[in-house]
Amino acid sequence: MIRYTELKSTNRQNLMEILPLQKPFTVLIEPSSCCNFKCVQCFQGIKEDNYFTRNRMNMPLERFLKIIAQLQAWEGPKLKVLKLSLYGEPLINPDFCEMLRIAREADIAERIETTTNASLLTSAIAEKLVEYRLDYARVSIYAPDQHKHEKITGSKMDINSIHENLRVLQEIKKQHKSEKPFVSAKMLDTYGEDNDRFIQIYQDVADELYIDKPHSWIKTGNADFMKNYYQDGIGAAVEDIKQHSTRRVACPMAFTTMVVRSNGDAAPCCVDFIGGTNLGNIDEHNMRQIWESDRWLEFQKMQLENRKHENYSCARCDIYLSDHYTRDNIDGFPVEKLRRKNFN
Fold first, then answer.
1. What pLDDT does 340 receive?
2. Is the pLDDT of residue 10 over 90?
3. Residue 299 near residue 279, CB atoms below 8 Å
4. Distances from the Cα of 9 to the Cα of 4, 6, 89, 134, 184, angstroms
5. Sign of CA dihedral 282, 115, 214, 162
6. Are the CB atoms for 64 and 93 separated by under 8 Å?
7. Residues 333, 19: contact at Cβ < 8 Å?
8. Phi, psi (5° rounding) for residue 186?
9. CA quadruple 284, 289, 292, 294: dihedral positive or negative?
10. Looking at residue 87, what DSSP letter applies?
11. Local structure of 245: helix, strand or coil
12. Contacts of 297 (CB under 8 A, 6+ apart)
């Protein structure tokens, strides 16, 4: 299988030449917005009241079925990616494996993936991930030793159990002679020896290992996510971000991506945990209607016209500037070419 880190560079199209898209390349469905970790660098650790804290929940299976039915009814090519994860730990939802089965049988995407901390990856779940052919499991590791893991995640879980969960998954894959799911484990860059320790510990239970690059989540309240994580060593992370910052105007996500949160809210952004980019709800309008709506079109225009300050979340976000996370540059795309059939 293609390594997860190489997927963005494989058979890549020039977005400028193919806009507007008939449907998104990528759809993210959130099985759960809850998490069993409360990481210091993540909004899951925020205690003050906001949109995210008020909407922590598991997606009901009935809503998931509605989303899949809407995607099946949407004419056009398959999705490039269906991702069964967003802001929470997806395996918290007891229906996750059933969701995977339903999505696989629907045959609506070229690949299906998820992101998990693997702490809840039981052997029974591992069996289902193999049986239902999850393509990629992106595994987030937070520290190479127990003390740092507890400090970062706020969890007392024995990190050896995470390694064991991944070992069992690999053993089940071997038993079934399956390459899937391809396990891509990553840890946030520490700019120190912990990077090497992470690789040494997990190299026998992952198909790929990589060091993820830092970014700050959308700013809210007094939260300083990067400072919480790096503390006195934040200088290296800040310099890294600076070195990989572009001068882009438009965030391309609204042109390629649709997110459906566990409560049914739909958005063009996978980092907006505070909900400022919500443009509809799939319980009120189907996904195609939302994609073709005036609200979605105006959001895209806002990006191209450098009016991000008009949106509460976009005004507090700079992730789109990072060449680590954003490959497409659509600055200068003619707004008038975005015209499409609108839903009123």
1. 63
2. no
3. yes
4. 10, 5, 27, 21, 16
5. positive
6. no
7. yes
8. -140, 155
9. negative
10. S
11. strand
12. 338, 340, 342
Retrieve residue 86's tokens: 């967003």
Q: How far apart are CA 63 and CA 108, in angstroms?
A: 17
Q: What are phi and psi of 275, to 5 degrees?
A: 80, 15
In whole angstroms, give the CA distance from residue 124 to residue 213. 32
| Residues in CB range of 276: below 8 A, 6 or more apart | 218, 311, 312, 313, 314
Number of other CB atoms surrounding residue 107 within 10 Å: 9
Give the DSSP H/E element, type plus range, for residue 281.
Answer: strand 280-281
Would you say how long the chain is, in residues? 344
Cis bond upstream, residue 268 (ω within 30): no
Please report, as a single letter, which amino acid is at residue 131.
E
DSSP string, 29-66: E-SBS--S---TTSGGG--S--HHHHT--BPPHHHHHH
Could you tell me the two tokens for 317?
A: 């976000």
Pairing of strands 136-141, 26-29: unpaired
Nearest to 152 by CA among 93, 113, 205, 198: 198
Q: How far is CA 86 from the centre of its chain?
A: 5
Q: Do 260 and 266 touch, CB atoms closer than 8 A?
A: yes
> CA–CA separation, 279 vs 314, rounded Å?
13
Residue (of 194, 196, 202) closest to 151 by Cα position: 194
DSSP letter at 115 equals E
- H-type alpha helices, 221-315: 225-230, 234-243, 253-256, 287-291, 294-304
- Cβ(68)–Cβ(276) below 8 Å: no
Q: What is the pLDDT of residues 103-156, one digit of tens each?
A: 999 999 999 999 999 999 999 999 999 999 999 999 999 999 999 999 999 999
Nearest-angstrom CA–CA distance, 229 and 201:
21
* Global pTM value: 0.95
Residue 95 has which token pair? 């229906």
- Under 8 Å between Cβ of 134 and 183: no
- Phi/psi zone of residue 221: left (φ > 0), alpha (ψ -120 to 50 degrees), beta? left
